[in-house]
Design goal:
single chain, about 140 residues, alpha+beta, five-stranded antiparallel sheet, three-stranded antiparallel sheet
């Protein structure tokens, strides 16, 4: 198990520390510990999908997670989802010098935290896709 200490930010700018435990043996899973809320487990086909569920839970509390995978301009390729279980993702940019692959659990600046909806819109716009229902119903 690998532990990441991250923060989430509220709309009022309040910073909330949290811990994510990354289960590295078996099925991809995350265990989030949020002060005053205890521990919750999230499982999925890959780590990025687990992270989406963590973010959805935090958004329910009015919080945005401050990690690379929660930036609007970060999304895993299909190959990254399969080969690396979604642990790494691309920074979506047209500028070659800014292209990078990031660990989705590395910290990100508070100013880079985005909602799930903002990330979805950014990904659709980057790939020139029409907005509509995604295949998973989100």
């Amino acid at each position: 198990m690998e532990t990441k200490r991250l923060v989430a930010v509220g709309a009022d700018g309040v910073i909330v520390p949290l811990t994510l435990e990354i289960v590295v043996d078996g099925e991809p899973a995350l265990i989030m510990e949020l002060p005053g809320e205890g521990r919750r487990s999230f499982t999925g086909a890959d780590y990025f999908l687990c992270l989406i569920d963590v973010r959805r839970e935090l958004e329910h509390y009015g919080l945005l997670l401050c990690c690379q995978g929660a930036r609007a301009d970060v999304f895993p390729s299909g190959m990254q989802s399969q080969v690396e279980l979604g642990r790494y993702a691309r920074v979506l940019t047209r500028e070659p010098e800014k292209r990078a692959v990031v660990d989705i659990f590395d910290p990100a600046d508070v100013s880079e935290a985005a909602t799930l909806e903002a990330q979805k819109i950014a990904v659709y716009e980057f790939f020139g896709l029409p907005m509509g229902d995604s295949p998973d119903g989100d």
